Sequence to fold (335 residues):
Amino acid sequence: MTDDSRTSRQLQVLKDLGLSRAESEVYLACLQLAAAGAGLLSSYRVAQEMGRDPANVGKIVNTLAHVQAIRVVQEKPRLFLAVPPAEFTDHLLGRMRRRGAEAISLLDDFAAPEAEGVALALGTPEQVLARARSLVAATEADLLVAGSPALIRELGADLERVAERPGCRVRVVSPQAFTSATVEVSALPTAGRVGQQPDEGWIVLAADEVRWLVALQPQVPGSAAGPCGWWASGSPIARVWAEFLETAWRAGVSALPAATFKPVPDVMPAIEPEAPPAPPAEAPAFVPEIATGPAVAAAPPTPEPWASPIPADEADAAGFSFLFKHEHKRDDKRR
Fold:
């Protein structure tokens, strides 16, 4: 970066902080003189350095003294020092924050209620975290959260405060196991595979089945081309997210014993792929067994039917002649 481009960038930054171009140029000249060891400065000395009219520079110096960019150490003749940039910007930002809070208080009557049932964009990771904290704090009964370990750690204290309220239940699904005395944590390692990178920050939140938030934070701040998250209140979609998170929570490991939230390690634990299923065992080939024991005893002979003995005088009769012979005997007796 050349000197001219660097100076142009410095002036632009000062203008972004609220100084005019002329005020930025005078303040920058005061800083350059201080860095060169000029000591106490006067309006005439600064005007000579800049090649400007001393009267005009004197008026600008008065303005810079009012915003505490320079510190007057003597009135007659008026001598001053440039306030270091860190101190000046800290004072300037503090004043802007106070003015911002005052503006919100004065204009609060004109604030429109947040749109119900409409998904609203979240443009930065800071907005995602701030809105997530707001939704967590507004929980009245049931809160379900799934997210990357880093974001869960950021919200840990907020989640535990809500879980301590009577009637509030807080459940968390995380790819890394956390432990808490009040928050019910379910470790689900496969939940870490969200986004294009393993350590990408993400969060899904459903509160009381009426509020939800979904976000995938960019790895490099400011690299996202569009919104990195969405949220809504009074939306029926919150029930869908609640059912999804309920299913994920049940699929995870049961909550660990009570303790405090543990810090997330710098390196995410590697998620080992599941082992492929073992091939089915082959059935053993059939081998006929050869009997080696004693021989099986032969079946006993079938008994012949019992026959009553025939008298000697009838032994010569056979078949139906036996009946005729008895008939002849009865006829002889009748005679």
User: Anything to note?
Assistant: Strands lie at 70-74, 79-82, 120-122, 142-147, 169-174, 184-187, 202-207, 211-216, 229-233. The radius of gyration is 49 Å.
